[in-house]
Design goal:
Helix content is about 75%, strand content about 0%. The chain has five helices and no strands. The mean pLDDT is about 85.
């Protein structure tokens, strides 16, 4: 996008929207599928989608894992599930803070997956 009148603060606001846990995935998918946005925005979109899919996969697997087990094991799975959910939200918040400070948005593991698999699939 080479629009000289396109505002930088608006780009950063869109990047914050992409990083909203759960709800930011839809605008991120929309941006990638339309092939719009700056390279930085597309990078944030891929990272947001990767984090959300990782959380969703872990959530589903842990939810199904406790259906036929004892009460103590089911409690442990629910506790682990809540830790993973909290970790997802805190990771998104930490990336937003890094975006505010204009630091690198690289997250070990997730950034490599986002740039590898998600880029090939959605871009």
């Amino acid at each position: 996008m080479n629009d000289p009148f396109y505002e930088k603060p608006l780009q950063r606001l869109q990047e914050y929207i992409y990083l909203i846990p759960i709800f930011g995935v839809l605008p991120a998918l929309w941006t990638l599928k339309r092939d719009r946005g700056t390279p930085e925005q597309r990078q944030v979109c891929r990272l947001s989608i990767t984090l959300a899919l990782g959380w969703l996969l872990a959530y589903i697997l842990l939810s199904f894992g406790g259906s036929q087990t004892s009460e103590i094991f089911r409690f442990r799975l629910l506790f682990l599930n809540s830790l993973i959910g909290s970790g997802y939200f805190l990771t998104c918040l930490a990336i937003m803070i890094r975006l505010f400070r204009r630091q690198s948005l690289k997250v070990s593991g997730a950034s490599q997956i986002a740039e590898g698999i998600v880029r090939k699939t959605l871009s």
